[in-house]
Design a protein that fits this description.
- The protein is mainly β.
- It has one domain: Porin.
- 14% of the residues lie in helices and 60% in strands.
- The chain has 2 helices and 8 strands.
- A hairpin with a 6-residue loop joins strand 7 and strand 8.
- The longest helix is centred in the first third of the chain and has 23 residues.
Amino acid sequence: MSYRNFKLIIICCLLTTQVSLNAQKDLSNKIGVTFSSLGVNDILGQSVANSFNYEGKNFYALGLTYIRGLNKWLEIETGLEYVKHNVNIIPNVMPGTNIFMRTQQTGLPLLDIPVTVRANFLKYFFINAGILLDIDISNSIYLENQTGFGGIAGFGANYDFKSGLSIFLNPYIKAHSWIYVGERQKILEKGFRLGITYDLRKIIKK
């Protein structure tokens, strides 16, 4: 290989690297907060002893989110959420017994780590789907441990302001702990997620 050809290859590699770095700078790089609620949390399955029925009452979730662009229309999103499910525990009393137990309400707090892919289209809309790691931080004596892997899917709308702020609304469905060890109830969560993010590229440009 001649020295001239070698220099030409080096120049081409540098130009390709520069173009790649510039392209990366144009991709989204957002961090923000989310709030989820306004939906239903169905409890599927019975207790191991078949002693209780379960009725999801309500839920809410507070989270931190990070969104990173993979290309012009595809992004990956992850973060950490604190989720609180309120559940009614309904005793399954056998006919003919004198045992009287009231319906009780219990709280089931979880830590969720979602990893989803977001596909953007028509400028303001997106669909998202991915996996979910649930970590049960409760000490419930009525529901089996909910630590495990689940899934999430949804669609939504996003609006970017020139200041770097963005706001999105994301109707979704979550299947909590559908991959786990043993037999237990599963939580099917359907709700709306509201998020506010800020594009870190605005800080870099300043």
